[in-house]
Amino acid sequence: MTTRRVDQIWLFGGLALVIMLVVGGWFMMVKPQYNARDSVQADTAETQTQLITEQKRLAVLKTELKKINEYKADLITAQQALPHDNTTNKIPEFLKQLQTLGLKYDVEVSGYAATGEESSATTPTVTELPITLNIEGPVDNIMKLVKHLQTEQPRALLVENAKLTLSDDESGLLLTLKAFITKTDTATVKS
């Protein structure tokens, strides 16, 4: 071989080696950096989208937080309507409330009788307490008391049966009610 031919082989070999180093460097060093950059940019875009979503959610929660007192009042009302199951089922308090209502409407609330609790057929976390009341007084006042029981008083009641006995001086109403008690304990809220 001639010297010139050897030099050409070395020259082409060197050029091929340089090209291989450049291509290998590109695939081994530069391209992974571009891929990493693209991955970081995609993650950044996804994070920004999540941030916007969470900021919207935070705005909704801040709006809801402004209504916290309203929610607490609703919870207190619900807890009064459906007290938590305990040893007395809040019946003594309810009887005092009925007697106070009797005084307000000028009728006599007496003859209280309650049977054992029954599980609700429709709501498994609620028990029903059948109550029988005897109310005596003028018919108009008795009707006002019954209307108050059904619409205004806080305790959840269902009037199942009513038997009215009329007389000239005093009328009487025998009411069969169901009071409801929940087995679900909720946090006590101070208003």
Automatic annotation (TrEMBL):
Q: Where do transmembrane segments lie in this chain?
A: 9-29
Task: Please verify whether the record's keywords include Membrane.
Answer: yes
* Pfam families per record: PilO (PF04350)
Q: Per UniProt, which keywords does this protein have?
A: Membrane, Transmembrane, Transmembrane helix
Protein name stated in the entry: Type 4a pilus biogenesis protein PilO
Q: Which organism is it from?
A: Actinoplanes subglobosus
Organism taxonomic ancestry? Bacteria, Bacillati, Actinomycetota, Actinomycetes, Micromonosporales
Record gene name: pilO
